[in-house]
């Protein structure tokens, strides 16, 4: 099982398609993940794909969100958002739904344990993701320390099972995937702009981040220049800079 984590070979990412591009041959039997390489929501599904070893089964199609092609909303996904999965003649969206969909409908290591208590925690934490991100984003507009309870919630959740460093103990799961793209960005922004360390006084969170940074499936979705992009994007969005 452990070895299956590191079989992923870093892939050459296809260039993102913009308004001047032609659409791929849609609904031709190829499974495609429409993504934006810098989007945390899309990153969730990208990590899932890599962890399950589906690089050959699911083709990445980058979309340039700043200059998106008209055909994307017209022919692929009317909401005009990423991620979206083209599979078996239909399009499926919403990142948390897609994590579950990939886990249920494709081969590769399962991302949910059989243990009922762990399954229940997985459901609770999946339901909490929007509250978590909303709390932290709102704190960016004022006092960064106000987001403390959101990270305390994660620290407490990581303390529920003592058989491993992940949310569900010894098993990397859908829950870890749901949170890491956002925690990564929040850690960067709070550290760089507010000089606030989210891991201080939260040893479980620190150990979790360290463990995830060892996983090839996740590391391959981290892009060079993410730090600068996050600081610029969030500063503009929340601080008006």
TrEMBL record:
Q: Which Pfam families match?
A: GST_C_2, GST_N_3
State any single GO MF term: glutathione dehydrogenase (ascorbate) activity
The EC class name is transferase
GST N-terminal domain residues are 29-110
Q: Which residues form the GST C-terminal domain?
A: 115-233
Database matches in PROSITE patterns: GST_CTER, GST_NTER
**Which EC number(s) are documented for this chain?**
2.5.1.18
Q: Which GO terms describe its cellular component?
A: cytoplasm
Catalytic activity reads: RX + glutathione = an S-substituted glutathione + a halide anion + H(+)
The cross-references to InterPro entries, in alphabetical order and at most eight, read: Glutathione-S-Trfase_C-like, Glutathione-S-Trfase_C_sf, Glutathione_S-Trfase, Glutathione_S-Trfase_N, GST_omega, GSTL1/2/3, Thioredoxin-like_sf
**Keyword terms of this UniProt record:** Detoxification, Oxidoreductase
Q: SUPFAM superfamilies from the xrefs?
A: GST C-terminal domain-like, Thioredoxin-like
- Tell me which family the UniProt entry assigns to this protein: Belongs to the GST superfamily. Lambda family.
Record's protein name: glutathione transferase
**Which organism is this entry from?**
Linum tenue
Which taxonomic lineage is given here?
Eukaryota, Viridiplantae, Streptophyta, Embryophyta, Tracheophyta
């Amino acid at each position: 099982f452990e070895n299956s984590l590191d079989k992923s070979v870093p892939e050459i990412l296809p260039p993102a398609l913009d308004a001047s591009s032609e659409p791929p041959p849609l609904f031709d039997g190829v499974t495609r993940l429409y993504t934006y390489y810098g989007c945390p929501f899309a990153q969730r599904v990208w990590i899932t794909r890599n962890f399950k070893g589906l690089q050959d089964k699911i083709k990445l199609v980058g979309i340039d969100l700043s200059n998106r092609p008209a055909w994307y909303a017209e022919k692929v996904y009317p909401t005009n958002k990423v991620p979206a999965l083209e599979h078996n003649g239909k399009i499926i969206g919403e990142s948390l739904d897609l994590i579950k969909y990939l886990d249920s409908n494709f081969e590769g290591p399962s991302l949910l344990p059989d243990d009922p208590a762990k399954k229940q925690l997985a459901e609770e934490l999946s339901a909490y993701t929007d509250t978590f991100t909303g709390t932290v984003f709102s704190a960016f507009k004022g006092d960064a320390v106000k987001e403390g309870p959101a990270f305390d919630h994660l620290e407490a959740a990581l303390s529920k099972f003592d058989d491993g460093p992940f949310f569900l103990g010894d098993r990397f799961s859908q829950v870890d995937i749901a949170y890491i793209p956002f925690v990564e960005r929040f850690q960067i922004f709070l550290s760089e702009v507010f000089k606030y360390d989210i891991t201080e006084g939260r040893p479980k969170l620190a150990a979790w981040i360290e463990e995830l940074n060892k996983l090839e499936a996740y590391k391959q979705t981290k892009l060079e220049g993410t730090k600068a992009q996050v600081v610029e994007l969030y500063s503009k969005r929340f601080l008006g800079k």
